[in-house]
Amino acid sequence: MKRIIEIIAIALLATMAISCEKNDDGIKDYPYNMDIVSCLPQTNSIYFEQILPYDQGSVLLIPDPAITGNVEKGQRVLMQYYDKGNVDSVTKSIEVIQVASILSDTIENLSLDSINTFKNDVLKLTSMWRTGDYLNLNIMINYSSRPHGLSLLYDLNQNMTDTLDVYLRHNDNGDPMGYWAQTYVSYYIPNFNNYQVLRINTKLYDMVENYVTMKIKE
Question: Cα(208)–Cα(194) distance, rounded to whole angstroms?
């Protein structure tokens, strides 16, 4: 499936698009935390699961005051929040500042011939990090007005044992040059932990090599 998404600039110090209903008093003072987390809707509130880097497990984040909204279980979002302290070793109390929707998907398994049919337009890969079975990406895309597409793909016939070779494909849909817009994406990769190294093949802006690598395990 070739997914099409709207690329929205997310300024780290500005108000984010709110996807959960809550009373907001505006921008809060530093220091606050920012992380990509998973939604866990409850009867009267939304809890969040913070999946820790590599294989360190997860922490349950309970908002105080409570927040409500229309979210799906497991939906990945970008959240600003204050850490109000540990409830126990695996639970924290937090104050939510803002929550923003992001693109969240599962890696697609295709043949290399099929992968080569996807457009491969240029992008900037600002940062990438692994939390459990999720690959999280901070991407910059030159955006003007048209919807863009992003896909993470895996070759069905890949036979490497220690390196996970994936293809990040960007379709700018013929969007004219505009400005570099920041967006976050989070991809679920089953059996992520079976590999030692991740290699992302993509067309990188102003770089000779069209791939980047990352250690999967500490």
Answer: 29
